[in-house]
Specification:
The chain is mainly alpha-helical and 286 residues long. 77% of the residues lie in helices and 0% in strands. The chain contains 13 helices and no strands.
């Protein structure tokens, strides 16, 4: 096959790698006293600052006055903020697995919003994934044990992720750069809205040590490239099929969380996770 055929796949895998490891620098910033909301605000302002020269050099005109742009912006902004807050406070792999119920929501969203062909196996896949989630969160004294804040954030972030990917594929009239800009602006907007209701004092930029500034810049660079590449990949590959490549994120997260912070996975989470992954693979199968 030609290299061009592999570019969308590489783009999705690169994005999955970035989001599978990015939880760690965000945690380092949280340990330095910068919460997930404020670190997201700082990082995405930096990302936007990196993007503006890129748009200028490449002479890209980015129209932003459309409801599609701003709806994508808000949904993607919430997805990113809730994801960061979930991986900072929760167990990384548990959060990832709950987040990756997103293909279940993608099946239904792509059917109604994109008119993509939905087959019986897609609904079987959705059932298997949801059953896997029940296994993960079942407790002897509760039918479903899902009362951790990070669990709910991960679940809602997964729904937002599914919606973002479906809208990315639906809005073919929007350029990749336009979609990426919508995401970056969206995170900044949602972060500012959250800050309005946040009781913590906003840390000033001089609060950062040089190492913290380096971490923020490194995250911003990774997000700049991964956002552009993921938007390219999702535009080229069907929404449900793209979900299978994002599973690479779980592998990266599992290895990195074990090596960096010594997190382990319970037996029921292994079984539930395998069922979720099996459902995603079945849904994405040609």
């Amino acid at each position: 096959m030609r290299i061009k055929h592999y570019l969308p796949i590489f783009s999705l895998l690169f994005g999955a790698f970035v989001w599978g490891i990015i939880w760690y620098p965000y945690r380092l910033m949280a340990q330095a006293g910068v919460s997930g909301i404020y670190s997201s605000l700082y990082v995405f302002i930096l990302t936007l600052a990196i993007a503006l020269p890129y748009f200028f050099i490449t002479k890209k005109k980015i129209p932003i006055w459309s409801k599609d742009f701003w709806f994508l912006s808000v949904v993607a902004g919430y997805t990113n903020i809730s994801y960061v807050l979930a991986v900072i406070d929760g167990e990384v792999v548990r959060v990832m697995l709950l987040f990756y119920l997103s293909p279940v929501w993608t099946i239904f969203l792509s059917h109604f919003m994109l008119n993509e062909d939905t087959q019986k196996r897609h609904y079987i896949a959705a059932f298997i994934s949801l059953l896997g989630a029940l296994v993960m969160f079942w407790q002897p004294n509760h039918f479903i044990y899902l009362d951790l804040k990070s669990d709910w954030l991960a679940l809602s972030s997964g729904i937002g992720f599914a919606m973002t990917n479906v809208m990315t594929r639906k809005h073919q009239h929007m350029t990749i750069s336009q979609k990426a800009l919508a995401i970056w602006i969206g995170v900044i907007i949602i972060a500012i809205i959250c800050i309005l209701f946040d009781k913590d004092t906003m840390p000033s930029l001089d609060f950062f040590r040089p190492v913290d500034a380096f971490i923020a810049i490194a995250i911003a660079l990774c997000l700049f490239f991964s956002t552009l590449l993921v938007q390219f990949g999702v535009t080229q590959i069907k929404a449900v099929e793209a979900s299978s490549f994002f599973l690479f994120e779980i592998v990266v997260a599992a290895i990195s969380s074990y090596l960096l912070v010594g997190e382990s996975i319970e037996i029921k989470e292994w079984f539930g996770g395998i069922m979720i992954i099996a459902g995603v693979i079945l849904a994405a199968k040609n």
